[in-house]
Amino acid sequence: MAVERRADDTRMHTAEFAALTTDDLDYEEDVIVADSPLPLLLVLLLVAAGGALGAVLRVQVAISMPVVVSSQIIGFPWPTLAVNMVGCIIIGFAAVALELRPRTSAWVRPFLVTGFCGGFTTVSTVGFEFAEMVGGGFPSLALGYAALTMVVSLGGCAFGISAAESLFCNGEKQEAAAASGKQKNKGKAGNK
What does pTM read for this prediction? Predict the structure, then answer.
């Protein structure tokens, strides 16, 4: 079955097209998830397996870095901050790697990005810990934690993107620089 990319057709950018929902799909045909060539059931299983692995690893990190919490003491939630930073680095790296290496196996995105990183990282725990800090009488700590979480998460994503670009684009950039250098040398030789 050939997949038409109607979303890429500028003639399809109408209010009617934007109003389409999943109810408009014909489930008698194969449903393709996010342009994945994999069957829907396999995508769901990959997401579930990756999510289970990510969630178990997150719990292991939390166990290895215990945080003291009582009615008078609120410990800083370093484990949550750490898993969100690492997860964002992975997502940033994977976004570039999957874009620059289109021949990557189709199972990588649902397993690693949606599943593993979805189970490993946690915005809901950040919200819960924020509420605990505010409720415990530590609103300044809560705001600092929220701000630090955003900086570390976005910084982690930027770091992952940069690392993937330097890893996957380095050879291409060197080739382009070499080709540019040859063009400049030819221009100088022709001017003499």
Answer: 0.70
